[in-house]
Write a structure and sequence with these properties.
mainly beta; globular
Length: about 350
């Protein structure tokens, strides 16, 4: 494992951890935002490329960033009106998407400096990152002790595990917000990527991308990705309800780039998956390869709970109370399709 330190203009030190596996996959994680900075995987011809979008320079992650590679929280996705009620008390959050709160507010976990340490355990290696979010952070109640662990094994699986405890009832919904392009970062549009989602239902949304009702069947809609198909013109920023037979890890998604043969499979313990096709990328950000990221330059698959759950008591529970333990686990498997 290699480590190095870079500094923001304000003097804060950011620690980088770069490590690989026996098959050559290489992952780089930094302590700012618990961000996945790069992920190099092979194509069908054995050529390795970075398949996650990111900024050309460290400073890019501080401003005008669409959450590239970050852990977002305390609450991934949107909360209507930037407020919620819990145990009879109303809490007002920082608002960063019009009147609503997105991915934790103005200064969410993606902009926090996490304490980090690398580790090697047998054939696995990884990074543990920890963060203390104080009571009132962005308006959320309770001091939250959060931890995320990235573990890479020799079977090309990246496991992302979350744990959190609180001293006061609060909301928790964490996810990983990497943008993938299996053709290689900066290689162009992902609309030709083929995707399959293990989801019979999706959440309809209103003009603010907030749930407008209960989950609806995907049957007969443009949101039916149960069979592999190109992303094409079916641009999404929607929540898909994962079909599962039992608790624990369940298959959520499979993606393939037909040009390079690279594949990505995701399993998760979460009840849902946000599928976002980079609709708001507009070419204003220059990526690591020097190429600008235009619309659909990457896609995100974010395992999580439903958006705006505090206003929908019928949705799965997102409240963490003192003495309880928030846990979540997702596995990202990388491979190659031949031919």
């Amino acid at each position: 494992m290699r480590t190095h330190i870079e500094r923001f203009d304000d003097g804060r030190e950011i620690e980088f951890f770069t490590f690989g596996n026996a098959l050559g996959l290489e992952l780089c994680v930094m302590s700012y935002g618990a961000i996945i900075v790069s992920l190099r995987t092979p194509d069908r011809d054995g050529r390795f490329e970075d398949i996650v979008l990111g900024h050309e320079r460290l400073a890019g992650y501080q401003s005008n960033t669409p959450y590239f590679g970050a852990v977002v929280g305390r609450y991934a996705n949107r909360i209507r009106g930037g407020e919620f009620e819990l145990d009879g008390q109303r809490f007002r959050l920082s608002r960063n998407e019009g009147r609503n709160t997105l991915h934790g507010g103005l200064r969410g976990f993606d902009q926090a400096l996490w304490a980090a340490r690398g580790f090697e355990r047998g054939t696995t290696r990884g990074v543990e990152l920890a963060l203390t979010s104080p009571d009132g952070d962005q308006g959320f109640p309770g001091t939250l002790e959060a931890q995320v662990t990235y573990t890479l094994d020799d079977e090309n699986a990246l496991r992302v595990e979350y744990r959190a405890r609180t001293d006061r009832a609060t909301l928790v919904n964490l996810t990983q917000h990497s943008y993938f392009n299996l053709g290689g970062e900066g290689s162009g549009s992902v609309l030709a990527h083929e995707i399959a989602l293990n989801a019979d239902h999706y959440l309809p949304v209103d003009a603010e991308y907030l749930p407008s009702g209960p989950p609806l069947p995907v049957e007969g809609t443009r949101f039916d990705f149960r069979a592999p198909a190109p992303i094409g013109e079916r641009a999404c920023d929607h929540t898909f309800v994962i079909a599962r037979a039992r608790p624990g890890l369940a298959a959520a998604a499979r993606v393939c780039d037909p040009v390079t043969g690279r594949t990505l499979e995701i399993e998760t313990t979460e009840p849902a998956l946000q599928f976002y096709t980079g609709n708001f990328l507009d070419g204003s950000i220059r990526g690591k390869s020097g190429q600008s990221y235009a619309r659909h330059a990457g896609f995100a698959l974010e395992p999580q709970h439903y958006p705006d759950s505090p206003h929908h008591p019928e949705f799965p529970e997102v409240v963490l109370r003192p003495g309880g333990l928030y846990t979540s686990s997702s596995v990202y498997r990388f491979g190659v399709r031949r031919g």
